[in-house]
Amino acid sequence: MTEAELEYRRRSPRSRELAERARELMPGGTTRTTTYVDPYPIYIERGHGARVWDVDGVERLDLICNYSSMILGHAHPAIVAAIREQAARGTGFAATNPLEVELAGMLCDRVPSVERIRFCSSGTEATMFALRLARAFTGRPKTARCEGGYHGTHDFAEVSTHPDPELAGPASEPRPVADSSGTPAAAVAATVVLPFNDPAAAAAIVMRHAAELAAVIVEPIIGAGGVIPPEPGFLERLREVTSQHGILLIFDEIISLRVAYGGAQARYGVTPELTTMGKIIGGGLPVAAFGGRADVMELLLPGRQDSLPQGGTYNGNPLGMAAGLAGMRELTEPVYAELEGKGERLRSGLQQAFDSHDLAAQVNCAGSLLNIHFSSRPVRDYRSLAAADKELSREFFLAMMNEGVMFAPRLMAALPTCLTDADIDQVVESADQVAARLAQTA
């Protein structure tokens, strides 16, 4: 057991007790695989602004903000007020409500490629329906996705998100690999895998399978897979080759919508047919959406003979719509510009801390999204991500938790608007101290 883990255990006796009880009720003691941490997760009791407090009373800066969804931080006054007001009026009806119309209009205005939109409750649902819609619209059976991208946990998303490189074939010709047991062989067979940031190889694969491809789905910035921005020409080449062959291009902007007022598609100037959204659009509540070109979305029109049904008890629920509206109103273009500056300031400070101790590390950054990778070479795709030092990442995560700074276990960060310069200085100073200790033992 390392010094960092011993200190982690010492600081969290109540969390350890809860974890032991929780393991008797939920596999791993958690209801989300992404919140599981070895040796056990910290149990958060409350949050305010950029900080959270766990059940042992330990205060930490929260740099993950519920995996990027809490862009305004915790318990933002405008969102709290909107939730309270709507809760007093009712939290759900078997009917449409005026708030969903208002939020739909706001999202369509911000993302011009989205001419029509439908709400759902999770990013997994959003990508599932977007892919189904593409297959229905084109009549083609297969879809393509980039190796290392994350599109949720439905069957057609559970392919080549984190494959063993030894099973996944050459980097320029990735082979589809099931992400977990239970992924149907049919889903694997219906998936074509592309290399991220290799435009020539990706285009060649798309052209080879063009006749059977309904869509190419891509995170314009790979999020959960390492915060990997697209290199110049990659998204543009995907746009060209899909347009040439009548293949729908789907941008999964569930995470990347936070990098610009109009999302990553506005940042990079590439327009897809369909877009999936989530995280920030719900103000911290479970809200997601998919939308795009009107003629494609019209397949969802009730009453059509070939209509694609889409249900969901909580789709467009008034509580989520109220929170989403309150949150999105706060996210003006100047706010995005300020967040961009905070991201770059933190990236620069972290990189300097690692470099000053000769610790091989890369700090990937795109707007307010960051990810630290302990690697001697740039992380630009899944294969370079897979080669990074996972043990060093775990030590850094635990040590930073002990310093009062919470990254995701994979060292991803999603900065909130309420993060101050003093907070950034605290993170950099803590990282410098941890890097010094890690360099001594490396």
Automatic annotation (TrEMBL):
Source lineage: Bacteria, Bacillati, Candidatus Dormiibacterota, Candidatus Dormibacteria, Candidatus Dormibacterales
Listed SUPFAM superfamilies: PLP-dependent transferases (SSF53383)
Cofactor: pyridoxal 5'-phosphate
Catalyzed reactions per annotation: (S)-4-amino-5-oxopentanoate = 5-aminolevulinate
Record family assignment: Belongs to the class-III pyridoxal-phosphate-dependent aminotransferase family. HemL subfamily.
Source organism (scientific name): Candidatus Dormiibacter inghamiae
Location of the region described as Disordered in the Swiss-Prot/TrEMBL record: 1-23, 148-182
GO molecular function: glutamate-1-semialdehyde 2,1-aminomutase activity; pyridoxal phosphate binding; transaminase activity
Composition bias, Basic and acidic residues: 152-165
Class of this enzyme: isomerase
Pfam family, one: Aminotran_3
Protein name per Swiss-Prot or TrEMBL: glutamate-1-semialdehyde 2,1-aminomutase
InterPro entries: Aminotrans_3, PyrdxlP-dep_Trfase, PyrdxlP-dep_Trfase_major, PyrdxlP-dep_Trfase_small
EC number: 5.4.3.8
